Amino acid sequence: MSEKLMTISELAKVFKINQHTIRHYEEKELLLPSEISENGYRKYGLSEAYQLAFILFLRELGLSLASIKLLIEEGSRTDYTSILLEKKAKIIEEKRRLEKLSKMVDEQIVISSKSKEEMYTVNHAINLSLLKRMPLSESFGISDLAEIKLSSGLFMEKIYYIIHETFYDICIEEAKGTHFSISSGKYYFQLIEIGSEKEVDKEIEHALLNHGFPLIAIEDSERFLTTGNRITIKVLGEKK
């Protein structure tokens, strides 16, 4: 029984690609038609369909056409397994990046939609790691970020300030953080907007009238919703 073959347009339709892609693979000698009819029509069978599927899969993994050709012509099963393991590791890394990005998007949604709420909700205990300890008389700036060699991703994360009588600690949230912990629950909070060191000192003094040391202040991505050079900080009060 002879196999019923497909034309190039039919094959392209099955894989949802254009005919030029298939012709390009043929030019690179990655894929050859099962037969070419007298009138020049190129025909493809099941074997070519499997070959095309394999090529498209490897392209999806990011392999160049030259690498695919080398793998098809000279590669062993061991070579193929090594490539798959390498790509799997990169996929896992990218998945983690996207999950982190998704979490940041969720936080942005919460921040932008609930900025007028009177309570600050901590759904689970927040463990903090220390980035740097600063004298209360000095402000934390971009040079300090460079000194502790943090990535630009920090600018989209929450920064926690644990303020003591003569110094303050700059912290970030980490699962294994041991420097300070904020217990879960609902907190009353004071929203302050500041643009200078004098304003910082004034607002801290005002907050201390209602709360003792250590004072917990949070600078989150709501900073991007303020105008000019001013930043917004939430100062946590007592738990409800």
Automatic annotation (TrEMBL):
Alphabetized InterPro entries for the sequence: DNA-bd_dom_put_sf, MerR-type_HTH_dom, MerR_fam
Entries under SMART domains matching the protein: HTH_MERR
Keywords: DNA-binding, Repressor, Transcription, Transcription regulation
UniProt xrefs under PROSITE patterns: HTH_MERR_2 (PS50937)
GO MF annotation terms: DNA binding; DNA-binding transcription factor activity
Record domain HTH merR-type: where: 5-74
Matches recorded under Pfam families: MerR_1
Protein name (record): HTH merR-type domain-containing protein
